[in-house]
Amino acid sequence: MPPETSPAADVDLQPAHEHQPDATVLWQRFSVPFEFPVHFTDRIFATENTTLLECICRHEPNKTHRIIVFVDDGLLGSRHKLKEQVVQYAANYQSQIELVCPPIAMPAGEKIKNDLHFVEQMQKHLADHRIDRHSFVIAIGGGALLDAAGLVAATAHRGIRHIRIPTTVLSQNDSGVGVKNSVNLFGQKNYIGTFSPPDSVINDYDFIRSLSARDKTAGMAEAVKVALIRDAAFYRWLAKHADELALFEESAMKHMIRRSAELHMHQIANGGDPFETGSARPLDYGHWAAHKLESMSRYHLRHGEAVAIGLALDTHYSVSCGLLEAGADEEVCFLLEHLGFRLWHSALEARNHKDELEIIQGLKDFQEHLGGQLTITLLSRIGEGIEVNQVDHVKVQQSIQWLKNRAS
User: Fold this and answer.
1) Are strands 200-204 and 180-185 parallel, antiparallel or unpaired?
2) Right CATH for 214-407 from 1.20.120.160, 3.40.50.150, 3.40.50.300, 1.20.1090.10
3) Quick count: other Cβ atoms within 10 Å of Cβ 392?
4) Model's pTM, two decimal places?
5) DSSP track, 40-83
6) What is the distance between the alpha carbons of residues 86 and 104, in angstroms, rounded to a whole number?
7) Could you tell me the CA-to-CA distances from 128 to 96, 101, 123, 132, 337 in Å, in that order?
8) What's the gap between Cα 51 and its chain centre?
9) Which of 170, 186, 227, 352 could form a disulfide with 234 if both were Cys (CB 3.0 to 4.6 A apart)?
10) What are the pLDDT tens digits along the chain (408 aa)?
């Protein structure tokens, strides 16, 4: 007789419930720890700055690593030598880095997320250069490029190491340190995507220096958002330093970016649902309206600009429902306006063929994105969010009118 074989070590053959054995069910159980470094540095491609080299070599320090680099073409208008700097950096460390081709420019902003052609184009570059799972896909750009390149890296060969180098305030303090990758499809934002953490994130403040004033301001909305729902002390700091932030004073900007990134990272790691398997999206306060406003404005509104309006709308709604103390809505609006946001857009009043406010569809889109019951984050106090499952459409309309009255 052949020797008895033991069951596979990674399959639990014990009943899932001791008192209810079921011989037809095997329960597969394992856990995979996720961790990745988020670096804060300055002038990443300076020869003496080894941050990128350390990220590339941290798994296997004694080999040459193949990399492919995608660059946001919006950057190249203000940083003409960026491609040359990447090539030179790789040449300086050629025993450890093999740049398989010159950096590849890809469209900036929502354009890259609205057409799957660009995803296919990036996948083709990976295939042509035989990028494997021990190689690196490096994306340098704003949140849209990071989203698209992250999706490409996560799906090629079932996952290639991905290094994000965010270049906007918004991507450095929020999306770049998260675990989501996506593009838009069927008129729905982030319809195609994955939850796949990057291998490393490198926040280089030198990219912030070259941003337009509009883009610097837009990224601050996510800092206000996370302060409102998670950290009253940070909210008070933002209010105290609003003058410096409005003038883009460097030390204030660096602190704002870092603290916002910390809070977003803490929520993902400790909120209990990093891959959003439930119905709640606690980091998306103000976003149900913001996402809809972006598409309704044909993306003339920056994401952060739409978020600022969404924050103002939901903060007043929180007051009107009796969840938040009276006057807090004016205080929040004053801070947002002080930072440079305009808290009104005519799309808020757009109506569909049934004469219904089109923005209300944002609630349905928000629910459909995760499924389950509608779950919206509101405020119970500054620094503390609360999840609710019903939204009064009449009060939403009243909140829109309140914003319009303030704007006029």
Assistant:
1) unpaired
2) 1.20.1090.10
3) 12
4) 0.90
5) EES-TTSTT--HHHHHHHSS-TTS-EEEEEEEEHHHHTT-TTHH
6) 11
7) 22, 11, 9, 11, 49
8) 22
9) 227
10) 444 444 444 555 555 455 566 789 999 999 889 999 999 999 999 999 999 999 999 999 999 999 999 999 999 988 999 999 999 999 999 999 999 999 999 998 889 999 999 999 999 999 999 999 999 999 999 999 999 999 999 999 999 999 999 999 999 999 999 999 999 998 888 899 999 999 999 999 999 999 999 999 999 999 999 999 999 999 999 999 999 999 999 999 999 999 999 999 999 998 878 888 776 777 889 999 999 999 899 989 999 999 999 999 999 999 999 999 999 999 999 999 999 999 999 999 999 888 889 999 888 888 887 777 888 999 999 999 999 999 999 999 999 999 999 998
Structure-token pair, residue 159: 């996952």
What does the chain come to in residues?
408
What's the one-letter identity of residue 80? Answer: H
- Token pair 């025993």: residue: 95
What are φ and ψ of residue 161, in 5° steps?
-60, 135
Q: Which alpha helices (DSSP H) does 271-378 contain, by range?
A: 287-296, 303-320, 328-339, 361-370
Per the structure block, which two tokens stand in for 119? 């995803």
179-to-198, 199, 260, 265, 296 alpha-carbon distances in Å = 7, 10, 16, 10, 27
CATH number of 38-209: 3.40.50.1970
Helix axes 213-230, 328-339, angle to 10 degrees: 150
Q: At what angle do helices 143-155 and 116-128 cross, to 10 degrees?
A: 50
